[in-house]
Amino acid sequence: MTRLLHLSDPHFGAADEATARSFLDCAAELAPDLTVLSGDLTMRARRSELAAAKSFVDQLPQPHFVIPGNHDIPAFNQPFDRVFRPFRRYRETFGPDLEPILRKGSIEIVGLNSSRGIGPQLDWSKGILSQAQLQRAASRFASPSPGLRILTLHHPLLAPPDHRRDVVKPLPALVSLLTASHVDLVLCGHFHQSLIGIVGKDAKWSTIVSQAPTVCSTRLQGEPPGFHMIHHDGDSLRIVLHRFDQTRFIECSVMDFRRAGTGWQPIS
Fold first, then answer.
1. 188 and 209 Cβ atoms separated by less than 8 Å
2. One Pfam family this chain carries (predicted)?
3. Res 123: pLDDT
4. Is the peptide bond before 170 cis (omega within 30 degrees of 0)?
5. Which residues of the chain have pLDDT under 50?
6. Separation in Å, CA 17 to CA 59, 217, 241
7. Of 63, 114, 121, 238, whose CB is crowded by the most CB atoms within 10 A?
8. How far, CA to CA in Å, does 26 sit from each of 10, 32, 51, 242?
């Protein structure tokens, strides 16, 4: 069995230190095979925030896989960086690669950077992927899958009921990539709400989506901090939601999936 820990949106600069410490203690006890952090490590990529985020990431169970989010770009008090080098400070702290890839045992994971410093849309927090990015991800998935094929980005694919914020765009093209590449699992965040489901159920392949809540931010969206623990064993996959309960993280709910010829389906 392979065990993945998926967390998102710690938002150092608006993080609760006690919650962060409790999470690190819990993560050490869980001892996952891989830890994935799907963006928004900071509030505005201030140096103090990046230093706190780096200390946190260095304490995550190894190996870990980290991508940036829209809050890891400087605000408009740093307009030059915002427009011309939005990820300079992130790269200086976490390395130059904004779209890392990793193969470890039965896991293959590809990162996509859905965040932009500036763009034609009015809300620059929205997630956008270019055609070049989608083509590059497809080429990275061209080799045979070792067992569990994962795509990680910051912005979500699933919208909670009555939610007014947009999911990543262009979603149809992204779902086509997932279908063509037989991606098993997408890991993302951004909404600060836990949501687990599938995309592509009307296509030739369905993919599981794990949208993790914020792990330790004070910027809550109607639910406490939490994270997802993912257990994969062949054609079975289980996602366990852990929520923070005042002093510690506890298991809260479970979703099970099974893989068949047309991808993954939830087990009721």
1. yes
2. Metallophos
3. 62
4. yes
5. none
6. 14, 9, 21
7. 114
8. 15, 11, 22, 10
Output the pLDDT for position 164: 73
Q: What angle do CA 185, 191, 192 make, to 5 degrees?
A: 95
Q: What does the pLDDT read at residue 196?
A: 98
Pairing of strands 101-104, 64-67: unpaired
Q: What is the DSSP string of 196-251?
A: EEEE-TTSS-BEEEEE--BSSBS--SSS--EEEEEEEETTEEEEEEEEEETTEEEE
State the pLDDT at residue 183. Answer: 97
What is the four-CA torsion angle of 56, 42, 138, 241, rounded to 10 degrees?
60
For residue 119, what pLDDT is reported?
A: 65
Q: Please, is 102 exposed, middle or buried when counting C-beta atoms within 10 Å of its C-beta (0-12, 13-18, 19+)?
A: middle
Instruction: Convert the pLDDT of each residue in 116-130 to its tens digit.
Output: 977 666 566 889 999
Range of the domain at 202: 2-266
Q: Which two tokens stand for residue 244?
A: 């923070």
Q: How far apart are CA 141 and CA 183, in angstroms?
A: 8
pTM above 0.90, yes or no: yes
DSSP conformation letters of 41-96? -BSS--HHHHHHHHHHHHTSPSSEEEE--GGGS--TTSHHHHHH-TTHHHHHHH-S
Q: Tell me, what DSSP letter sits at residue 184?
A: -
Q: What CA–CA distance (Å, rounded) separates 198 from 157?
A: 9
Residues 6+ apart with CB under 8 A from 50: 12, 41, 42, 89, 90, 93
Is-contact 159 167, C-beta < 8 A? yes
Look up the CATH number of the domain holding residue 133. Answer: 3.60.21.10
Residue 20's H or E segment, with its range, is helix 17-30
Q: How many domains does the chain have?
A: 1
